[in-house]
Amino acid sequence: QLQLVESGGGLVQPGGSLRLSCTASGFTLDNYAIGWFRQAPGKEREGVACITRSGRITNHADSVKGRFTISRDNAKNTVYLQMNSLKPDDTAIYYCAAAQKPLIISTGRRWGLGMDPYDYWGQGTQVTVSS
What gap in Å lies between CA 7 and CA 9, rounded to an integer? Predict the structure, then answer.
């Protein structure tokens, strides 16, 4: 059974940092592009960052650019989301998702950040930014 598991969420003060991890059971992540998404209460799920299978190409949403960084360690079967300079608006449940087909890379700012390419989803991890 293919399963994604997120970890690393928690409560952090504004300006703080967290690193989320996405691991897989039942398959190896290096065959999949990975995206991180988040959903705040009352809001739609939005794409935060994505990374190609090789890890050579990434994309980040404008709202997190310069603060969040997606990376992957295929040897550890793990994808990370390093989150720095956290703001209360970053409070949400964070999900990772895996896409079997290669992401379509374009000049558009939001390539890879829509939900359509992704086939498998984790259960999410809560991130709360509050003083």
Answer: 6
Whether 20 and 81 have beta carbons less than 8 Å apart is answered as yes
Which three-class secondary structure state does DSSP give residue 117?
coil
pLDDT score recorded for residue 26:
84
- For the chain, give the percent of residues with pLDDT over 70: 100
Residue for token pair 């000049």: 107
- Which of 43, 39, 34 is closest to 4 using CA atoms? 34
Give the per-residue pLDDT at 107. Answer: 85
Task: Give me the pLDDT at residue 127, please.
Answer: 98
SS3 23: strand
CA angle 130, 43, 4 (to 5 degrees): 80
Rounded distance between C-alpha atoms, residue 105 and residue 107, angstroms: 7
Q: Which of 66, 96, 68 is closest to 82 using CA atoms?
A: 68
d(CA 47, CA 112): 8
Could you tell me which residue, 110 or 69, shows the higher pLDDT?
Answer: 69
